Amino acid sequence: MIRHAARRVSALLLFPALAALAAPPPRNVMVYREAGRFAGWPANHGMWSWGNEMVVGFEIGYYRDSATSHAIDYSRPAEHVLARSLDGGETWTIERPEGLRPPPGQKVAGVPTGAEGKEPVDCPGGIDFTHPDFALTARMTSIHVGPSRFYYSLDRGRTWRGPYKLPDFGQKGIAARTDYLVNGKHDLTLFLTAAKSNGREGRPIAVRTTDGGKSWRLLAYIGEEPPEDDFAIMPSSVRLGPRSILTAIRHRRFIEAYRSDDGGGSWRGLGRPVPDTGRGNPPCLTRLRDGRLVLTYGYRAEPYGIRARLSTDQGATWGPEIVLRRDGGNWDLGYPRNAQRPDGKVVTVYYFNEDANQERYIGATIWQP
User: Fold this and answer.
1) What b-and-e string marks burial along 188-204, b requiring 16 or more CB atoms within 10 Å of the CB?
2) CA torsion 365→332→299→293, rounded to 10°?
3) Domain 26-367's class?
4) pTM score, whole prediction
5) Which residues contact 47 (CB under 8 A, 6 or more apart)?
6) Where are the domains of the chain?
7) Residues 270-318: pLDDT tens digits?
8) Could you say which DSSP state residue 267 is in?
């Protein structure tokens, strides 16, 4: 009897160790790195996936040391590029589609662009958002009051059509980044950041087109306008049900969540799934195939790195923080985007540095939630 009890105790003690072995530790891979360059901000551009084929957008400029700002040389040109993986994020190749070149004379966060593209025009509409190889990216001219535009692809990002104008929706300015939900063949909801009433960034809005991008209408503001010393920007959204949407919003020091149950027409706050990001970093909200939600973000305080949280109740509550990596050299990192592979693992792509005095690069962490 004593021997049987001892075996049961041994099994119970062993179980946590076996459970830990069931999920392999996060593994980091390189997407793009080049000495003397600054690569950054995947959350601004977007990430798309078709099984093990994944595409992520980001920016490449030139590195310049800075103690207070992003380590990018604002006097030299930058370019928009894509990285593509055909093996679930294990290896990546860089692409430079001509159709994604910014309009002539545009600056991005004060950085002049490289090879010039076309001026935005009115969209004729009729875009099939349900095309199996569809992708859309929305881009801004200014984080405050500049106009915005969008491009779309029907061949998994190899070629792009656009740029097409986005309206200002009666706002002082629109700072578009890529966050959208497809509702139907010509029906899409886009989540944007509008300027605050003082003309500075920003507060999030939901807008919608039902004619394939020809016309757009404002659905609602998401939350109240932030106070002077804060902003609410860079929404990341998932569909919870036919009419239910959850979005996560970046603030100056935290991440806040909102839910809509009428297709984006009205919103209610669900609190702060991340009460402190160190210095402010945008969220990436992803719905896993098993129904759980994963929220990833850069952590801009020591130990600098990339973190995540999981929710099993549609964002009502969130589990403990998961540290994907903690080896960052300083705060200039993050802006993640996620894609889930067919085997269930998540590929989280972000910009990063292990040394504050070296180039910024695009990395990815492959991990099992």
Assistant:
1) bbbbbbbbbeeeebbbb
2) -50
3) mainly beta
4) 0.93
5) 54, 55, 56, 57, 337, 338, 339, 349
6) 26-367
7) 999 999 999 999 999 999 999 999 999 999 999 999 999 999 999 999 9
8) -
